[in-house]
Specification:
By secondary structure, the protein is mainly alpha-helical. The chain has a single domain, classed as Cytochrome Bc1 Complex, Chain D, domain 2 (Orthogonal Bundle). α4 packs across α5. Bound molecules: heme C (HEC) (2 copies).
Length: about 240
């Protein structure tokens, strides 16, 4: 009888003494509940305007949330929601979505993926040939909704989203190019973080030196015209070193 009471007491006491990481499982679920309404459970958004967040680089997700707050990205609801988060929340939420299993967009893409692929030689240096990027600052594009990708590229073009590299990258792209490129990346498979491609390594392009970047952009502008890109289909990051 006494022993039975002891067992009951142990069962009652153990949950109270659960170590901290487990006890925190509740709060992160609470924090992301507002996000998953639009970005889907596990960050697997079904809405083509709302980006898939699963398996994205955590550092990039953090930077994106901060960009909404500081106005580098102009999007009302995200500014409001991200503005309510503390720096620790942003870190924890970003890590949470980054750790979710990858998903590929099932939405229809209006562009031509084959034509799009031919336009991505210069992008591959930073985003990987199939949109699985190596450097954590460069977002993965593989499997992302084409609509979201084309909206992002158009936002760089219109200036509602600012980034020194990407603004230059989109300058030479036509609207059709943007739709085609978006269709190409949307059709690729994003690899899970464990596949190794998400590990931080050196950048494929030297973005430290403005002179070097300018050379990249000139080359890109040349390859961006249809005739030139047919003649010079690749401009790999390796060659540009
Ligand atoms: C009402 C719908 C909605 C809610 C709720 C919402 N988002 Fe978003 N989110 C969007 C849309 C739409 C975009 C794309 C905006 C754009 O084009 O820049 C976006 C973009 C993002 C991005 C940028 C992704 C990228 O690839 O650059 C991140 C990160 C993000 N949201 C995280 C969150 C988090 C974290 C929450 C919860 C605190 C949240 N969102 C809540 C609709 C929503
Ligand atoms: C020198 C490196 C570099 C090159 C080359 C490059 N990008 Fe990017 N790209 C980035 C970085 C860094 C970001 C994140 C910028 C930001 O925070 O807005 C980005 C962001 C993007 C995004 C937004 C993704 C999201 O989730 O919101 C898209 C789409 C994109 N790039 C497509 C392209 C395409 C298409 C090309 C080729 C035409 C290209 N990039 C070339 C570095 C690069």
């Amino acid at each position: 009888m006494k022993r039975k009471l002891l067992v009951v007491l142990t069962v009652l006491i153990v949950p109270l003494s659960i170590p901290l990481p487990m006890a925190m499982a509740g709060p992160i679920e609470d924090k992301v509940a507002v996000c998953t309404g639009c970005h889907g459970p596990q960050g697997h958004s079904q809405v083509p305007e709302n980006p898939i967040l699963a398996a994205q680089h955590p550092g990039y997700l953090e930077a994106a949330l901060q960009a909404y707050v500081n106005g580098e990205r102009d999007y009302g609801i995200m500014k409001t929601l991200a503005g309510r988060l503390t720096a620790e929340d942003i870190k924890a939420i970003s890590a949470h979505f980054a750790a979710q299993p990858p998903a590929r967009s099932q939405a229809k893409a209006p562009g031509d993926a084959v034509r799009g692929k031919a336009r991505t030689a210069v992008c591959a240096a930073c985003h990987g040939p199939d949109g699985n990027s190596v450097a954590p600052a460069n977002p993965n594009l593989a499997g992302q909704h084409a609509t979201y990708l084309s909206n992002a590229l158009k936002a760089y073009k219109s200036g509602s989203r600012t980034h020194v590299i990407m603004t230059s990258m989109v300058a030479a792209l036509s609207d059709q190019d943007i739709e085609d490129i978006a269709a190409y990346y949307a059709a690729q498979s994003i690899r899970p973080p464990s596949a190794g491609v998400h590990e931080p390594t050196r950048l494929a392009l030297n973005t430290e030196s403005p002179a070097h970047l300018q050379k990249e952009f000139r080359l890109f502008a040349q390859t961006a015209t249809p005739q030139a890109s047919a003649a010079k289909p690749t401009m790999s990051g390796g060659k540009s070193r």
